[in-house]
């Protein structure tokens, strides 16, 4: 089983889950290019390249029989893309609150034109914020020991040594370059369609008889600013 984190995530996102699954199933988690302890990305961080990297990992890792792929959020989109492109390399999918093709089609969920425009502006703000942090990392103006630096956020409950090492990496190399590319691929759109939408099929039955489990939370802890609980639920 291979665990794929969502946008901006890393192997640390699975740290409370992996050990419990590993008690009965061989389980691996990895950092996509540009995240965590992995080398910087050399190409766009979109669904097609994420699926290709994952397939290369499975082949290079000598993991035995085709693994079950587990994807959270945008990682769900990536593992589906991998299963579409390399069906013989995947034995099943587990999608945890997954992203999916066409997800930004907010007007279709009854949010209306104004709300769709609001959410588009919010998504563009995410891209701009990540791009600002990436520029600061390249300019050398990020410092790992600056308290509360918003461009160097990590999980607060990490082992202090792990957290310090990650902050040093983020301050010099940064993971924000990969984040910018992922956001541009997954949420940035001018016509209601993202790059990831174009790269991953939305056709029913595309995966054939591949076993799949979809896990969804009953409520989301971080609603989009400016949207009511009802609107968030419909989205």
Write a short abstract of this structure.
This protein has 235 residues and is an alpha/beta fold. It has helices at 18-22, 47-61, 74-85, 112-139, 160-172, 176-186, 195-199, 229-234, and strands spanning 2-4, 28-29, 68-72, 92-96, 212-215. It has two domains: 2-104 and 195-234, Rossmann fold (3-Layer(aba) Sandwich); 106-186, no CATH class.
Descriptive account of the structure:
The chain is α/β, with parallel strands linked by helices. The protein has 2 domains: 2-104 and 195-234, Rossmann fold; 106-186, no CATH class. It is 40% helix and 8% strand. It contains 8 helices and 5 strands; from the N terminus they run E-H-E-H-E-H-E-H-H-H-H-E-H. A 5-stranded parallel β-sheet has the order 2-1-3-4-5, covered by helices on one side. Helix 3 (74-85) links the parallel strand 3 (68-72) and strand 4. Helix 4 (112-139) runs antiparallel to helix 6.
Identify the CATH class of the largest domain: Alpha Beta
Overall pLDDT metric:
81
Instruction: Kindly report the name of the CATH homologous superfamily of the largest domain.
Output: Alpha/Beta hydrolase fold, catalytic domain
Class derived from helix and strand content: alpha/beta
Main sheet summary: 5 strands, parallel
Which sequence of strands runs across the widest sheet? 2-1-3-4-5
Query: Total domains, how many?
Result: 2
CATH topology of the largest domain: Rossmann fold
How many E-type strands? 5
Low-confidence stretches: 105-113
Structural shape = globular
> Nearest-angstrom radius of gyration?
18 Å
Element string (H = helix, E = strand): EHEHEHEHHHHEH
Percent helix, as a range, is 40-55%
The rounded distance between the terminal residues' Cα atoms is 29 Å
Residues in β-strands, percent: 5-15%
CATH architecture identity of the largest domain: 3-Layer(aba) Sandwich
Please work out how many helical segments DSSP would assign. Answer: 8
